[in-house]
Design brief:
homodimer; mainly alpha; Arc Repressor Mutant, subunit A; Tetracycline Repressor, domain 2; 2 domains; 72% helix; 0% strand; DNA-binding; DNA-binding (chains A, B); transcription cis-regulatory region binding (chains A, B); HTH-type_TetR-like_transc_reg (chains A, B); transcription (chains A, B); Homeodomain-like_sf (chains A, B)
DNA sequence: TTGTCAATTGTCAGTCGCTGTCATTAGCCT
DNA sequence: AGGCTAATGACAGCGACTGACAATTGACAA
């Protein structure tokens, strides 16, 4: 067994200049996302055909499906970024926090930094309209929920690791995450139905609803 | 204001003999469901085309889409029945039960009577295989989750009514239901992955996992 | 029984999402 | 400059789904 004393840096700056080819790809991808979301939110998701998107971006339909495995996937490209934010934030939480608190604080801190990250690809305004579209379009809502449960498994494993547990032995990580995610979903729903579409509003709702989780499970509601 | 003393029965037997036309429709519909689920579970959902189903039942493709608005909907026809069972069972719970307990007992009592109800349309065995297929087929899982959240809204309103609350004023009904449903979903997942595919097994898991909801939300897991 | 009405079904043509294939283009690297 | 390879475009085809119209078949009254 060798003890790594001073490991050599594997790659100082792996991508200093991404190269023309890579930059071109990134631009095409971003353009597809922007145009797609713009058309989706303007005319509706199903009313917009893939042909309309690729005509506007001036690429072939085949290219669209090389970037996104489906029309739906284009909708969730930005969503994916915010999910990664949350997972990262959760990993940063101090290990002595209770599981529920760690998740709660991770969402709240994620909400704080998400705005700027989104702005690099699309206007935040467009992203908010996209979120509402997802909530109100059955086909998209379905995919959204499936993606959420996929992330729940990821989160459950992080929580289990924090507590030194095995997810397949102790059901509590998955259950805590499921309960937490359920509340977050209701939060998103209520925010989408409300009139205040700001990031501050959803942050406030997040806190408010998570605070109600304990009381909601209490045996007696009337007092 | 009139006090209903002894309400007259509105319609004694509205449908004594459904008529040939109606019976024929029911038979076609049941046949489509049976054959579809059989083929789906045997060869896989996406691998089975609608044409294969309608060829086996000897109807036109157009007829299939008159009975089911999509290929997916055929999968959930039986599921729908069990959901109605649960809603009914929930309505029967005594009003003094705590919300969470009412839901818990409603599922458990529903599991008891679901078997026979299913058998009228398809073999229970086929239904169990269908459930597993849904869990393991992304496209179906997505639809399943969306249907679940639609039912959550229904349940939340029942809970709110029991407690004399307005779902749009007090968030607790929706939150309690979301947490509850999250746990039920994990239950279904775990059951689908396990080896014991019996109705007893899922009943046992239901009890076990719901018992863990409180502990999972506790601030300290280690003791 | 028969004729009429309306519900149900079949046929056909067409749209749209999506995929496999193959030729063409265009960065990249020696 | 020229070869290599990644990216794109063009095309054909499949399967889910829909609209429109014609054909069939129970229902029900004359």
């Amino acid at each position: 067994m060798t003890v790594p004393v001073s490991a050599p840096v594997p790659a100082p700056v792996p991508a200093p200049v991404p190269g023309l080819r890579e930059r071109k790809k990134q631009r095409t991808r971003d353009a597809l996302i922007r145009v797609a979301l713009e058309l989706f939110t303007r005319h509706g998701y199903e009313a917009t055909t893939v042909d309309e998107i690729v005509d506007a971006v001036e690429v072939s339909q085949r290219t669209f499906f090389r970037y996104f495995s489906s029309k739906e996937e284009a909708v969730f490209a930005v969503q994916q970024m915010t999910e990664e934010r949350f997972v990262h934030a959760l990993g940063q939480r101090p290990p002595d926090e209770a599981p529920i608190d760690a998740m709660r604080n991770a969402v709240l801190s994620a909400w704080d930094t998400i705005g700027e990250a989104i702005e690099e690809v699309i206007p935040v305004d467009l992203h908010l309209r996209t979120y509402r579209m997802i909530e109100s379009t059955p086909a998209l809502l379905a995919v959204h929920l499936r993606r959420s449960t996929e992330m729940e498994e990821t989160i459950a494993r992080i929580i289990a690791a924090r507590e030194g547990l095995d997810v397949d032995e102790d059901p509590r990580p998955r259950i805590a995450v499921a309960a937490f995610s359920g509340v977050m979903r209701v939060t998103g729903q209520m925010w989408g139905r409300g009139t205040d579409g700001s990031l501050e509003a959803i942050r406030a709702l997040t806190e408010q609803y998570l605070d109600q989780l304990g009381p909601a499970l209490a045996p007696r509601w009337r007092d």
